[in-house]
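Minutes, project check-in
Item: structure for the 99-residue chain
Input as provided by the requester:
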Amino acid sequence: MSQRDGFTGGFLTGTIVGGIVGGIIGAVVASRLDNDEEENQSSLFQSDKREKLSAEESIEMARHRLEDKIAQLNHAIDDVRQQLGPMEQHSMESETSSD
């Protein structure tokens, strides 16, 4: 029975964390696609006076955005761990008392 409880907790944790990671990745990809479409449309209507960012600057901006998303993900994972902590502690106490 203890293996089944561990599996359920792990499954729920994996589902929650996987949903968060998938959501973040989807949001990043969608925002990049939207930005690319906006840039393509605006470049058609505007003159070439506007300078484009160099490759290094755009990589640096992407790195900062990725670091921010990672920090958000780590915060969400910590929140989930704190929420699941009392449940895991309770299941460990019930396992000890049944032995």
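Outcome recorded: The chain has a mean pLDDT of 77.
No further action items on this chain.
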